[in-house]
Write a structure and sequence with these properties.
The protein contains 14 helices and 20 strands. The strands form five sheets. It has a six-stranded mixed beta sheet, sandwiched between helices. Bound molecules: adenosine-5'-triphosphate. Its main location: cytoplasm.
Length: 456
């Protein structure tokens, strides 16, 4: 972290920026950055500092400036765009303004559109990388927010100093330094009031950090930034090892940190091109769930309708399922030997079927949507069918034996219904349910299967 001299006009901050860029190899020889300019303090400081460093001969001149008008905030946003264009001109740089129509977009959609525009602008202006103005306080807030929400080592790495062609050359600097710098240069920066909402988690953490610093460590921001740097390095090292081991046939043979990292990389690949799903799925929680699946076996439904399954110690991911949501499914069922498919997207699936002895049977079953597979088959019992009943520690029993013990009359046993998933009997309707259908306390979605008696 740099210490800014009391007088900002000795180029101290521009020199620190150039040192940081050089040490981290953020610009290779001949490369020129595009400056992503929102008009706020941080990106105004970034633009002026890059220009100052270029004037000192420490860094190349930026290729230009890009500002994205999200189309969300009306006149204020129009003024932001005008301001950015004027500031670019003041620095002698070209400026590209993008216009979105994101009136109803959420934060993730707005971000996706902004970065897509920045990539186009970089091409247009012949820039090699895109520089954004995230700084040390942003980093500390990000790390702390992730700690509060729950995170992993790679999450602790926070905002990467470089990802692809996006670079963050201001991660060394404190917010107060950038504010002082803009004030010194007489830049009347723009202010986006949407960032002031006290309900925003980032806003809350921003208020909390100084209090925590006062109670625990006056250099808390620096400590959190150092933690994120170390976590980024450890994480990069694990990533490298995981790439080397990604072909491992049985993931259970890998050391746990490595196994978890291979799973994380698989999730990252799986969510390519779907930012919203990535946010949900590339998390410590899902890595832990999939790790559990490797040990336990079976199938796990993923957010966004995909699912994962274990095959000989490796994870198999299935794509998202298509088709309409079934809410009140009714199937024709079954003459002995016929089958029906239940799409598990339905949270209440009703099977209309002639049942052998409805008065004796428990005709509904709750199962955890998180663990049952994509589709269920309802069919009549077959010779040799086995089930691992609830509470029997995985020991399997012949379904026919269970029917006999439950005193289902012999003549009705052939039309006994079972619900099967990928070769495993989950439910012998009214008689037994499998251990794997047990609904855990933390289940978030429960599928209610009902068998209705219809017919004689
Ligand atoms: N409208 C915009 N046009 C161009 N660049 C922008 C715009 N908004 C933000 N940026 C760039 O992104 C940086 C971070 O902005 P901000 O803190 O608002 O976004 P974030 O949501 O915290 O981060 P990010 O979206 O980059 O993950 C800014 O300093 C600026 O460099």
């Amino acid at each position: 972290m740099s210490s800014l001299s009391p007088s900002p006009d000795d180029h101290a901050l521009a020199r620190s920026l150039a040192d940081f860029v050089t040490e981290r190899a953020l610009l290779f020889p001949g490369e020129r950055p595009l400056v992503a300019l929102s008009g706020g303090t941080d990106s105004c400081a970034l633009l002026l500092l890059l220009c100052e460093a270029a004037a000192l001969g420490l860094l190349p001149q930026p290729a230009g400036v890009a500002h994205f008008h999200h189309g969300m905030r009306g006149q204020d946003a129009d003024a932001d765009a005008g301001f950015c264009a004027a500031l670019a001109t003041r620095g002698g740089l070209s400026c590209v303004i993008g216009l979105g129509a994101l009136a109803n977009a959420n934060e993730a959609e707005a971000r996706e559109a902004r970065y897509a525009f920045l990539q186009e602008a970089a091409q247009e202006l012949g820039a090699d990388v895109i520089a954004t103005a995230h700084h040390a306080d942003d980093q500390a807030e990000t790390v702390l927010m992730r700690v509060f929400r729950g995170t992993s080592v790679s999450g602790l790495a926070g905002i990467p100093v470089r990802r692809g062609n996006i670079i963050r050359p201001l991660l060394f600097a404190r917010r107060a330094q950038l504010e002082a710098y803009c004030a010194h240069h007489g830049v009347a920066v723009r202010h986006d009031p949407t960032n002031d909402n006290p309900r925003f988690p980032r806003r809350k953490v921003r208020t909390l950090l100084p209090e925590l610093a006062e109670s625990f460590n006056p250099r808390l921001t620096e400590a959190l930034c150092r933690l994120s740097e170390h976590a980024a390095e450890d994480s990069a090292y694990l990533d490298m090892l995981a790439v080397e081991h990604r072909g491992t046939t049985d993931l259970r043979t890998l050391e746990r940190p490595l196994r978890r990292r291979v799973i994380l990389q698989r999730l990252w690949e799986l969510t390519e091109g779907d930012a919203a799903l990535r946010e949900q799925l590339v998390t410590a929680t899902w890595v832990a769930r999939l790790e559990g699946l490797l040990v336990r076996g079976g199938t796990l439904n993923l957010p966004g309708d995909g699912w994962a399954r274990v095959r000989q110690g490796s994870l198999v991911f299935a794509p998202q399922r298509q088709g309409p949501l079934l809410t009140d499914w009714r199937g024709e069922l079954p003459v002995p030997g016929s089958v029906a498919l239940l799409d598990q997207r339905s949270l209440s699936a009703v099977i209309a079927a002639p049942l052998p002895s409805p008065e004796r049977q428990r005709r509904s079953l709750r199962v955890d949507c998180g663990t049952i597979p994509a589709s269920l088959t309802v069919r009549t019992v077959r010779d040799g069918d086995r089930i691992a009943p609830l509470g029997m520690a995985g020991k399997t029993r012949l379904v026919r034996d269970l029917l006999r013990e439950a005193k289902v009359p012999a003549e009705l046993r052939a039309s006994q219904l079972v619900v099967e998933a990928e070769g495993e009997i989950l439910w012998v309707v009214g008689v037994a349910q499998a251990e794997s259908t047990r609904v855990p306390e933390d289940a978030t979605e429960v599928l209610l299967l009902e068998i209705h008696h219809e017919g004689p």
